[in-house]
Every structure is written in structure tokens, then in C-alpha cells.
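REQUEST FORM: STRUCTURE PREDICTION
Request ID: SP-0412
Submitted by: Lab K.M.
Chain count: 1
Length (residues): 285
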Amino acid sequence: MDDAQKTRGTVFRELHSAEGTFVMPNAWNAGSACMLEAAGFPAVGTTSAGIAFGLGLPDYEGALSREAALEEAGRMCHAVRIPVSVDAEDGYGHSPEEVAETILRVAETGAVGASIEDFAASYGTGNLYDLTLAVERIEAAAATAASLPFPFILTARAECYLVGSENPFAESVTRAEAYRDAGADCLYVPGMTDAKTIGRLVTEVDAPVNVVMGLAGNPMTVNQLEDLGVKRISIGGSLARATFGLIRDAAAEIRNRGTFNYSQHQVPDSELCRFFAGRQDRTAS
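STATUS: Completed
RESULT:
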């Protein structure tokens, strides 16, 4: 830990306690993190899906190792000055002890936050951790985060909508409140897509809530989400997937039409060189 990490941790905690809403877009490598920081965002998250795709891997449990994910996260942390929060999936292990170890490993990258899911495809029937174990996992993560010599924001995810729970809203509220009481700083229920449901969640859990945008068929704006009381907005792997969409479309254009119109949207080499050279000087200072 250095003074910079302590400063970033303090900034990140203040973002979650200050009035209003902030956007924390998700990057998958150092270059994308740099461009998001330059655009003026106050923090970035990593996306395990984007990192996996960038390494030629599927977004399946176990395909992206903890080591590979955190190596990429470390590159992002060293490339930017803003806070970085790590998508730590299910904590890379079922037991509370494994989750606690992952939080320590995340902190070693220079990050000042992490999210932990309560779902794992390799765990039991239905694949959601039973509530008792899920709470123990968050308690272990929170205790480890509290032991760090800098502020660290722990985000707990309730995956009820994504796994098709019978009553996803009620179960999400139950789990989110339990994770809040277990020490989570921010709550995240992916899969909610309408304003009424999101507003109900924010009201009922009485804690900072993260909502993911950028999914197909989800047109809400930052202003609309702020009106609902959402504290933090992330974009998951959507920007990474959009980038891969550009690659796929450009490849199809070249192969099928023999044209190169995609190149009209590229950033000139000289501009990118100036941008990244300037950032090297900045982070070295």
C-alpha cells in the first residue's frame, strides 16, 4: 500500500457517500481504462467478461483464472490515477476463507474495491449460495477489507434475477439487506430492467445501490437513475462487447465486400501515441 492507494480509497468511499450519482464504466485492459479516465469518469471497474474475451476465453466460471484477472487489474491500477474496483466474480472460491484471500489479492493490485457474487455454476442446486453461506462469505470479505490500511469498498451482488428465482425481487431484497448488515458498502442486483423495480430496491435496502446499464433494451439515462436514488452506475462487459462487435463487423466488411470503410472511425496512430505517451509521463510523475 502506498499513499496513492490510500488517496484513491478515500476518494472512492466519498463517491459512495456524497450526494448524487456517479458512473463507473468497466474497462478490460490498461488502454481502455486510460481512455475512460481521460473522458472524466471518477472511477473505473474491471469486467471479468471483457478480460476473458480479450484473452480469447469464454465468460464461464473457471475459464478466467484469478491470477489472470488480477494481473490485468494490476495493469489498469498502474495506468490510471482514479479508483479501480475489481470484478472478483464469486470470490474465486466457495468458502469464506477463499473469498477473504481474494480480497487481499485484489488489494495487492492497487485496487480499492471489489464486487463479490452470490452465484457459482459449480455450487449446488440452483447455483445460488444458500443465504447462510452467502452471508458468511460477505462477512469474511468485509472483515478483510476493514483490516486493510486504506478505505476499500465492498460490493455484494445478489444474482436472483439472473438465475430465475421464483420471486426475484423479494429474494433480492432479503439477500441485499443481509449483505448490507454483513458489512457490504454497496449493493448490486443485476437483471433489473425497469424504473419502478429499481426505485423500489433503492428505497427498501437503504444503502448505496449499483445498477448496470448498457444492456440491450435498457434505455434509462443517468438522470433518470439519479432521480430513482441510484448511487453508482456501471456498464459491465457492454463496452468490451461493443468493441468486439466493431471487430466482427469490420472483418465481415473486408471479407464479404472487400472494402475498408470501418477505418473511417479509427483514432489516428499519431493521436493515440501522443495520448499514451502523455499518460506515461503523467503516471511516472
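NOTES: DSSP finds twelve helices and nine strands in the chain.
Reviewed by: T.R.
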